[in-house]
Amino acid sequence: MKKLLFAALGLVTLFSNACTKDPVSENGTLIMVRFQNSTDSDLEEAQMEFDSVNTTDVGAIPAGETTNYMVFDYFQTGYYPGGDYQFPTGSLNGKKDGVAFHAWSLNWCGTGVEYKQLDPGKYTIEIIKVGNDSPWTYQIKFVD
């Protein structure tokens, strides 16, 4: 009976490993994004928020560090027709030094921007300080 139990357990393990998708091996079919914190402070409890439905937890991003790639099912970008400039839509929210933190790409519909789903691939979004007045203090932008 023990041999039968071990054989069944072995088969279940074999099939579960064979059916697990590896995000790295499917580079061309997934949207993979990492976040680079170019500010001088750690960010805590970060979330990428597109709307009330499409929100992804990013977690802590230490100052000067870059997260691992994360798989996104939904990631909207803004672009200008006829141009190749794309930037993330939505905002990165969390805490910095225990205080609410907000960074966005500074795009809005009044500038002629159009929106689309990000093409599959690997991307890095940099978080930078651009000013001293909220909500214009921090910005997110693609760097590769």
Features:
11 strands; 144 residues; Immunoglobulin-like; single chain
Helices, by number, come to: 1
- Sheet of most strands: 8 strands, mixed
H/E topology pattern: HEEEEEEEEEEE
Classify the helix fraction into a percent range: 10-25%
Distance between the termini: 56 Å
Mean pLDDT: 79
Strand fraction equals: 35-45%
CATH fold annotation: Immunoglobulin-like
The whole-angstrom Rg is 20 Å
What is the CATH architecture term?
A: Sandwich
Widest sheet: strand ordering: 3-2-7-8-11-10-1-4
Helix/strand/pairing class, anyone? mainly beta
Task: Provide the domain count.
Answer: 1
Secondary structure tally: strands: 11
CATH homologous superfamily caption: Domain of unknown function DUF5300
State the gist of this model.
By secondary structure, the protein is mainly β.
Report on this structure.
With 144 residues, the chain is mainly β. The chain has a single domain, classed as Immunoglobulin-like (Sandwich). Helices cover 12% and strands 42% of the residues. It has one helix spanning 2-18, and strands at 31-37, 43-49, 55-61, 70-72, 76-79, 86-88, 91-96, 99-104, 114-117, 121-129, 138-142. The protein has an eight-stranded mixed beta sheet with strand order 3-2-7-8-11-10-1-4, with no helix packed on it. Strand 7 and strand 8 form a beta hairpin. It is globular.
Task: Please specify the SSE layout and strand pairing.
Layout: H1 2-18, E1 31-37, E2 43-49, E3 55-61, E4 70-72, E5 76-79, E6 86-88, E7 91-96, E8 99-104, E9 114-117, E10 121-129, E11 138-142
Parallel strand pairs: 1-10, 8-11
Antiparallel strand pairs: 1-4, 2-3, 2-7, 5-6, 5-9, 7-8, 10-11
